[in-house]
Design a protein that fits this description.
Two copies of one chain form a homodimer. Chain A is an alpha/beta fold and 359 residues long. Chain A contains 13 helices and 13 strands.
């Protein structure tokens, strides 16, 4: 997008960094990232290190309370100002507006992953034009003429696909893709990722598309096209497909495309033992069905769960092992906590799947 | 769109009328229609009646070979020129272009249900501006600000929903919605339909949206919003939700939204006994799974199949009864051929479902 040079960026979360709404920022801090993240802008995090706040690991990303404090402290202003929130509805919180306008006036390009496009906002667009900076709306779909329909070209792809699906959304499926790829790399397997969200693009994953802003009829074809390109460009041993939402999430079911249109005959299933209702919306009472049922359901889609990855959020340390053992006993599959221990324990099952698929 | 008056229309299919690509035209000829269809423009159908060609029923819709012949024969030029094809990929066949430009020059508004928008076509847009006619791109989604997210408001809807799903696409699900609504009306039940395709809009169904051109993240919310509005405006006894594609169609799975986000706890399942592979694409070898399996799969989505509607395409007359009996025996459900015999036989199961849902 800006040519070969890696640009520096500040991630802006207003005061959302320590909430689930900042999952985009969390992914960028955790890395990988298309940009070199040199600062966080969040009033509630000021004075701390973004990495330390996220998971206790210092990453040399200082947090500042406001733009002036940041510009005064940094040796050089960041090239880009990245909105690090994924609000419900994808709408720009009005409280973030003045800071965005100030960043534009200070000469930073603005990168936006929300559904609301900055380039369509008259005031922001005019400010950007005056300042000579770019507005990059990551979620804006390609022009219709450039979108792909599903053709069955998936049949010509060499690398077997594994869909990383979840029993709910916002569980860490994207991060698990990175952890799985790293585990594969340690085992001598070349893994690639096809991203399906705006954060994957921000992280610099070279193949993928933004599923949720793609017109529905083109989702399967854009996915197929991204997989075909990934296979051609990288010739990987395995391709992990980043899942979105969950097969039975009432606020927007997703996942069938990955296994059917992407012909992923294997699945890694991400699950949060401590979560009860979809998207934690207890008032709606839509209880997340049991993992064993999800595995049976996936069988109807001609795919097989190879292993489980567990999200330990809200799970007290002493309950982690019992939760893992219970799930392993019920399913006969290996379960790992990817953020705590990586995913090396899943490599044997992945390797067996690849051998079976190549036969 | 044009105020209260019902406008006249010619449906243009070039030479596709007698192919599955003209399913939009078939729906408009069969009715209901937002327009008063007074002619068909199709070189291969010229001299015949569109209704007779479709299903043997004369409907007083003469077919013409070209625009000049039509304008010479009709007492008054139609108000609207409706593109009646749904080509694979939604692209405008180049062969149709000169006739569209001629229709514009002759002063007709052009109504287009393809993915390719006429208003974005420089030559066609300029011609329309010169002629002072409108270009209506039915599939153009609403501006992002006007799109709805799913909120759970479906919980406040009074009328139980029944999703009309299919084991494949292009099976007649939309037409079955009309047949079911008519059967309900005869039995004293007030039925409404929520459409999910551009043809439903062309038919004048007051509630619905075009699912396949909606950005994926808004599909569930637009569906929920349409159902909520339908329930408010019409207070029906039951709402039929028009299904798209099939749960396991690899070229674009669909249907889970209707049962999960629309909370349709009942399903009418449309099936074509003579069809073997999805979308008749035998070369891909994606065999349509058995109906009994589809019914089991739907159980995982917390919905129940109430009855079956069968498409008799390519099914010789003598195989119809055996096919029905086999499906009824295997499923324990009633199956009807809606185009041949209506759907009155399904009303008892629908009535039982409504009683159960209101409890």
């Amino acid at each position: 997008m800006f040519g070969g040079m890696r640009q520096t960026a500040v991630v802006f979360t207003d005061r959302f960094f320590q909430t689930a709404d900042a999952k985009t920022a969390h992914g960028l801090v955790r890395g990988p990232c298309r940009f070199d993240v040199i600062a966080l802008l969040d009033r509630d995090a000021a004075g701390r290190d973004a990495g330390e706040l996220l998971d206790g690991k210092h990453r040399g990303i200082p947090a500042f309370a406001d733009l002036d404090a940041m510009l005064a402290a940094l040796p050089k202003k960041p090239d880009c100002f990245v909105l690090g929130v994924a609000t419900s509805g994808g709408v720009l919180p009005p409280s973030m507006r003045p800071t965005i306008l100030a960043a534009i006036a200070a000469g930073m390009h603005v990168v936006n992953g929300l559904h609301e496009f900055l380039a369509d906002d008259a005031e922001i667009a005019a400010a950007a034009a005056r300042a000579g900076v770019r507005l990059i709306d990551v979620r804006r779909p390609r022009p219709r003429r450039e979108l792909h329909f599903w053709t069955g070209a998936i049949r010509q792809v060499n690398a077997p696909r594994i869909a990383v699906l979840g029993t709910d959304c916002a569980l860490g499926k994207r991060t698990t893709c990175h952890v799985l790829a790293a585990a594969c790399a340690r085992a001598g397997l070349k893994a690639a990722i096809v991203h399906t969200g705006q954060t994957g693009w921000l992280q610099g994953i070279p193949h993928g598309f933004v599923l949720d802003s793609t017109p529905n009829d083109f989702v399967s074809g854009e996915l197929e096209h991204a997989i075909v390109q990934c296979d051609k460009d990288l010739a990987p041993d395995v391709i992990f497909l980043e899942g979105q939402s969950a097969l039975r999430n009432p606020s927007g079911p997703c996942g069938a495309e990955l296994v059917l249109s992407g012909e992923a005959r294997g699945v890694i299933l991400q699950h949060a033992p401590a979560r009860h209702c979809f998207e934690d919306q207890e008032h709606l009472g839509n209880v997340i069905p049991p993992v064993t049922e999800e595995i049976a359901l996936l069988g109807y889609y001609r795919t097989r769960v190879l292993g489980m990855t567990l999200n330990h959020a809200n799970l007290p340390a002493e309950r982690r092992e019992p939760a893992r053992e219970e799930l392993q006993r019920a399913t006969g599959l290996t379960a790992v906590y990817p953020l705590l221990e990586g995913a090396d324990a899943l490599v044997p099952a992945i390797r067996a799947y690849l051998q079976e698929q190549r036969r």
